[in-house]
Amino acid sequence: MVKSSHLALSAALAVAAIATDVSVPNHLPTRQLLQDAYAYSLEPVWTQDYISSNLTRNLMNVIADITGKPPTFRVGGNTGDQTYYHPELNISAVALPNTTVTNTFNISNAWFEQWGSYFPQGTDFLYTLNLKDNSSAWANAVQEAAAAYSVLGDKLKLFELGNEIDHFINKGWRPSTWDVAMYIQQWRNISDQIVHSSWYEAADQPPKFQAAVFADPPWVPDQQDEIDDFDIINLTRAGLTEHDKVGSYAVHLYPQSTCDTTRWYRLSLDLLSNHSVLWRNVSQYVPQVVAADKAGIPLVFGETNSASCSGRSGISDTFGAALWNVDYVLLAASIGMPKVYFHLGANAEYSSFVPLPYQHKNESLSAGIRSLFYGHYFTAHVLAADTQQRIAQIPSANTSDFSGYAIYSSGHHHRHSEDLNKLVFIDLQVWNGTQGLSNPSTLSTTDSTSHSAGQRPVREVSISTSWKQGTCLAITRLQAPGTNAKSEISVSGVSFESQTGKQVGEIQKEQVVVGKNGQVCFVMQAAEAVLIERK
Ligand SMILES: *[C@@H]1O[C@H](CO)[C@@H](O)[C@H](O)[C@H]1NC(C)=O
Ligand SMILES: *[C@@H]1O[C@H](CO)[C@@H](O)[C@H](O)[C@H]1NC(C)=O
Ligand SMILES: *[C@@H]1O[C@H](CO)[C@@H](O)[C@H](O)[C@H]1NC(C)=O
Ligand SMILES: *[C@@H]1O[C@H](CO)[C@@H](O)[C@H](O)[C@H]1NC(C)=O
Ligand SMILES: *[C@@H]1O[C@H](CO)[C@@H](O)[C@H](O)[C@H]1NC(C)=O
Ligand SMILES: *[C@@H]1O[C@H](CO)[C@@H](O)[C@H](O)[C@H]1NC(C)=O
Ligand SMILES: *[C@@H]1O[C@H](CO)[C@@H](O)[C@H](O)[C@H]1NC(C)=O
Ligand SMILES: *[C@@H]1O[C@H](CO)[C@@H](O)[C@H](O)[C@H]1NC(C)=O
Ligand SMILES: *[C@@H]1O[C@H](CO)[C@@H](O)[C@H](O)[C@H]1NC(C)=O
Ligand SMILES: *[C@@H]1O[C@H](CO)[C@@H](O)[C@H](O)[C@H]1NC(C)=O
Ligand SMILES: *[C@@H]1O[C@H](CO)[C@@H](O)[C@H](O)[C@H]1NC(C)=O
Ligand SMILES: *[C@@H]1O[C@H](CO)[C@@H](O)[C@H](O)[C@H]1NC(C)=O
């Protein structure tokens, strides 16, 4: 149980210290923790921007060097259903009327070649086909599939058929009778045409399909665009469970939104930096996971970020968002959603990094790296492992401002206590500092002017573990001057040059030794994440 008491750590400094006792019981229920649990989703129209500088590749290489596998890229999103294959195009791709406002995106083989060859070796791709255009029995989607595979080959692991298909009635793309039954019929029609193509039959490891791709959160009516029956429970009950075709199911989650006035007024950094809120947002998928488990097919967060409709600078690009994304990926994994794809757009306020200088809301902004990438870099150290890891939420580290996970090195369901390999703790108290408030790659008008009063609190954590007394542990920290910081973020001394992604510094791990009865004690600041691992 968490025992919290306020006491003065040092009379001279009068720093408020919170004493937190955590216990890591044996036999916690665990789920798989993939080395590439953290993935990206890239809006098709912005692909060319992301590969126009070396920043994206350099950052992905940084991650691959730690986890052993570069992050998966989904090339998909809204513009996936506006994409048309035009092999005769005299340029690689064209967004009409432009990339900011797009109703048609025409592509050729050269477009697949450009991004297919850009990313680090070993990058897996997912590509979203146009489900919207149903003319000639989806001839366009079927041609896109053949073209994508002809260029990408085995790098192409999954297709999606349409993006956020539960919004199709609202967008006027399907009649009001559009439902799970009709979706499955159309899904089978297109996927059958694809799997019966000669290129597919000849392929050694042909791509499977990521089905569903639903947007509306099950438990939040005001974020649902209309009443429909699209969810994983209904989809699997209706029979879309064929293992030879369905590699995974996807749902999208954006906890907050800038899409409409009501939700615009609800946007808040404090709401993002709150583990109880995250739990409410993520736990609504627990029944969906049960349905996916029953089908024996994993459910993933196929597109996500802090706030829909491109995010909100001042929230999406702060250190609070970095702590959120660490907590989010680990919480998702621990409820059985093994992969989370963070959406990218070249001028989106939530992007983890932006590849090129750009104009946005009357400001001239630079290419650069935002806080979320530091969250990814820290998470990469959690995901890195020689053997398959498993993860569990720690029940006694589960309050609105404190979250914890236990990670086991054995891939087996039946773990032994000695398999406890890592612990992660995230302090989500909002501490607004006075440094690192701006970042030339994001809007300056949203730089924080809120500063917390007094000294930054510290938390004295005492954990009882199954580790043997005398075991040496290493601590890695994700830190920043405050929840409101947009820069000066680091992971145990490592930062990245914002224009190039070049690593500056080396990880300086601290050491701690396990005490009597498996006791581990350390101190962390308000608004900080720590990784503790066996050396
Ligand atoms: C980008 O990377 C390529 C290939 O590694 C290299 O040849 C080129 O010099 C780099 N460009 C910049 C601007 O660093
Ligand atoms: C490509 O073709 C279009 C007409 O379809 C033409 O307007 C344009 O100038 C051509 N672009 C190039 C680079 O040749
Ligand atoms: C993109 O097209 C829209 C609609 O035609 C227009 O309002 C907008 O100014 C264009 N944006 C750019 C950057 O050209
Ligand atoms: C883009 O694709 C649409 C749909 O196939 C087509 O009508 C249009 O002519 C194309 N435009 C260009 C510039 O390729
Ligand atoms: C194709 O889409 C149109 C709307 O664009 C819709 O009216 C029609 O019913 C759809 N056909 C099928 C088979 O879904
Ligand atoms: C797909 O649907 C079209 C009608 O839209 C039909 O002509 C065709 O036979 C169907 N193909 C398959 C493989 O189901
Ligand atoms: C599943 O479908 C039924 C109608 O068949 C509907 O009443 C129910 O709300 C759907 N479930 C969800 C969670 O949408
Ligand atoms: C996430 O939780 C917050 C707080 O309860 C709520 O306002 C928001 O609507 C939730 N978002 C989603 C998508 O569940
Ligand atoms: C965090 O969210 C919970 C649930 O919505 C709320 O009760 C609590 O007051 C929030 N904590 C802070 C510090 O805002
Ligand atoms: C950009 O500047 C124009 C002209 O000064 C102004 O009308 C507009 O509101 C500004 N837009 C934003 C997002 O600040
Ligand atoms: C974490 O707390 C939530 C309530 O906020 C609870 O529903 C959930 O079961 C708790 N998780 C664990 C692992 O104890
Ligand atoms: C922290 O700063 C943000 C603005 O940057 C503000 O919205 C939030 O309310 C502040 N929170 C606290 C607890 O000071």
TrEMBL record:
Signal peptide: 1-19
Residue intervals of the Beta-glucuronidase C-terminal domain: 404-531
Region of interest (Disordered), ranges: 439-458
InterPro entries, A to Z: DNA_methylase_N6_adenine_CS, GH, GH79_Enzymes, GlcAase_C, Glyco_hydro_b
UniProtKB keywords: Signal
Protein's recorded name: Beta-glucuronidase C-terminal domain-containing protein
This protein's record includes keyword Amino-acid biosynthesis: no
A single GO molecular function term of this UniProt record: methyltransferase activity
GO terms for biological process, alphabetical: methylation
Domain of life: Eukaryota
Keyword Ribosomal protein on entry: no
Biased composition (Low complexity): 439-452
